[in-house]
Amino acid sequence: MFKRKTTYLVTQTIALLLVLLMGLLGKFLWISFASSPENILIRKFTFTSLLPLGNGLPFPILFMISVFIMLVINTLRLLKKTSLAFSKIQIVLSCFALICLLLPLILKMQIFNPAVLLMLLLCALVLIVELYLKSKAHP
């Protein structure tokens, strides 16, 4: 079970690293601005840019903070044996990250693009693996 759990944790860590790199390096946050009904401008930002925060969109920076915290927790879990509390924190942070990624899309504050879909799938993978590990640890 130890080797399999380590494999799952490495999978989670790789998924979180991909999400973090996509958020840091790619301009995958697309926001539309309208000066008039017929003139719509789409601006592209990174998830760590503070300009969307100044425009009333705090979710991308909250998403990136939660992904970074999840990555730190996963690294700690890989390096040493940790308690069940880290698993619960990981589940809560995964749900929070998914909400922070989905809410602007649902409220039409952000334009949907394929990179956001990939980030959403990777965060869902982290949550599913964590729920699986928790169910195997405490049946």
Structure notes:
It is built from five helices and two strands. By secondary structure, the chain is mainly alpha-helical. The chain has a two-stranded antiparallel sheet. The longest helix is centred in the first third of the chain and has 24 residues, at 2-25. It is elongated and about 55 Å long. The mean pLDDT is 88.
What is the CA-CA span between the terminal residues?
14 Å
Q: Any low-confidence stretches, pLDDT <50, length ≥5?
A: none
The helix count comes to 5
Largest sheet: 2 strands, antiparallel
* Average pLDDT score: 88
The gyration radius over C-alpha positions equals 17 Å
| Structural shape | elongated
Portion in helices = 55-70%
What is the string of helix and strand elements?
HEEHHHH
Number of E-state strands: 2
Biggest sheet strand line-up? 1-2
The proportion of strand residues reads 5-15%
Supply the helix-strand structural class: mainly alpha
Please provide a brief summary of the model.
It is built from five helices and two strands, in the order αββαααα.
Record the SSE blueprint:
Blueprint lengths: L1 H24 L3 E8 L2 E7 L5 H4 L4 H21 L4 H23 L7 H24 L2
Antiparallel strand pairs: 1-2
Helix pairs in contact: 1-3, 1-5, 3-4, 4-5
